[in-house]
Design brief:
Distance between the termini: 183 Å
Coiled coil: 120-154
Structural class: mainly alpha
Order of helices and strands: HHH
Helix content: over 70%
Radius of gyration: 76 Å
Keywords: Coiled coil
Biased composition (Gly residues): 85-98
Region (Disordered): 1-98
Biased composition (Polar residues): 48-63
Shape: rod-shaped
Length: 278
């Protein structure tokens, strides 16, 4: 905002000489249009001993005016005009020498000077308005500068607060980073211990699995032995039953043989008895 106000002020200050140049161009144009009348006025001023003063338009806006720069109609002549038929010549001829321009020349000169005066008045009014605008712009620039300074002060305070907050945040972040680093180290150690324990547990599980496989193999061997022994016991039971049947047959045969032997002994006893008796 301050930059735009400064640029507006600079443009207004730069516009004042431009307006002065415009007025000079206007005067030059009016002089070129009425060159003959001004030449006559200048020649009249030279004859009367007066030199027309150039109009100076200063940057401050003041336009000096002198008695010599007054319109030709109101200018003091170098000599008095003689009345009609007086000394010095005919009517309308000044006593100071020279020829007097006609009424048309005076009217044109008055119109030219009136236009110049109107242009100067308009220029003065424009310069006054421009000065007022420049003053307003300067006040706006001053206000904007004050506001910018206040805003800069606020921003400086906010920046200081932000820097303080950043420093505190940095300290807190470093503390949290250290705490997180400690936690990470403890977690790493715990994970290492857990990994070693897991490795030991895996080794124990592998050993237990190997032992289990060995036990299963031994159990299968025992089961095979038991099956063999069961088959042997079955065969032995069959042999035992066969032997029992054979033993029963032999016992029956022995019993029959014993009975036969007893009968033979009885018969022998009877024979012996018969022999002794006979």
């Amino acid at each position: 905002m301050s930059e735009s106000s400064g640029e507006a002020g600079r443009s207004d200050t730069a516009r004042l000489p431009a307006e002065g140049e415009g007025v000079a161009a206007l005067q030059k144009a009016t002089k070129s249009e009425d060159g003959s009348e001004e030449e006559e006025d200048a020649s009249e001023g030279v004859q009367k001993g007066t030199t027309p003063q150039a109009v100076d338009i200063s940057p401050s806006g003041t336009v000096p005016r002198s008695a010599d720069a007054s319109p030709p109609g109101s200018a003091q002549r170098g000599g008095r005009e003689s009345p009609a038929g007086g000394d010095g010549g005919g009517p309308g001829v000044p006593t100071g020498g020279g020829c007097c321009p006609g009424p048309s020349a005076h009217t044109a000169g008055n119109a030219t000077w009136s236009r110049v005066c109107e242009a100067l008045d308009a220029l003065e009014s424009r310069q006054a308005a421009a000065r007022k605008e420049l003053q307003v712009v300067r006040e706006a620039v001053a206000r904007s500068q004050d506001e910018a300074k206040a805003a800069e002060a606020r921003w400086g305070a906010e920046l200081a607060g932000l820097r303080t907050f950043k420093a505190a945040s940095t300290v807190e972040l470093q503390r949290q980073n250290r705490a997180l680093a400690g936690r990470a180290a403890r977690a790493t150690r715990q994970s290492t211990r857990a990994a070693s324990c897991c490795a030991r547990a895996c080794a124990v599980a592998r050993r237990a699995r190997a032992k289990e496989e060995d036990a299963v193999g031994q159990l299968r061997g025992i089961e095979a032995l038991l099956e063999v022994r069961d088959s042997q016991s079955v065969r032995l039971q069959k042999r035992l039953s066969e032997l029992e049947r054979c033993l029963e047959g032999k016992s029956r045969t022995l019993t029959a043989t014993r009975a036969l032997a007893l009968r033979q002994e009885a018969l022998l006893d009877e024979v012996v008895a018969l022999v002794h008796s006979g």
